[in-house]
Amino acid sequence: MAKNIKQKPSPETQAEALKIAKATQRPAQTKEQTKLIAQGIEKGIDLYKKQQKEKARELSRKLKKVSGQQSDSAGSENQTIVERVVYRQHWLPWLLLVLSWLGWGFYFFIFQQ
């Protein structure tokens, strides 16, 4: 059986809704009309809060599910993962370094004699 319990909005929500209704009030608008608008705004605020709470609950459920799966997979597999980092360097700088050394050696060998 579904629960249809009508909760009264919080005083903060009522005050905020009344403030918004008064801010958008037309010059010829009566107090009763403003109160009706404020009630509609209260319902909208309550609906928004309910949706946000549901999203937060759903997100926490998903996070618990994912963290539970990670801990299960980590606990069931006691294998260690070994990562190998391979540093690969380009050959061009080394070639240029060797050529410059050979060039300087050739220069000093020829012109220093």
Rg measurement, Å: 37 Å
Query: What does the largest sheet look like?
Result: none
* Shape descriptor: elongated
Strand content: under 5%
| Strand element count | 0
In DSSP terms (H or I, runs of 4 or more residues), the helix count works out at: 3
Q: How does the helix and strand content classify structurally?
A: mainly alpha
- List unreliable stretches of 5+ residues: none
Secondary-structure element pattern, one letter each:
HHH
Arithmetic mean of pLDDT: 85
Approximate helicity band = over 70%
Distance between the termini: 107 Å
Q: What attributes does this structure have?
A:
3 helices, 113 residues, mainly alpha, single chain, elongated, 0% strand, 71% helix
Characterization of this structure:
The chain is mainly alpha-helical. It has three helices and no strands. α1 crosses α2. The chain is elongated, with a radius of gyration of 37 Å.
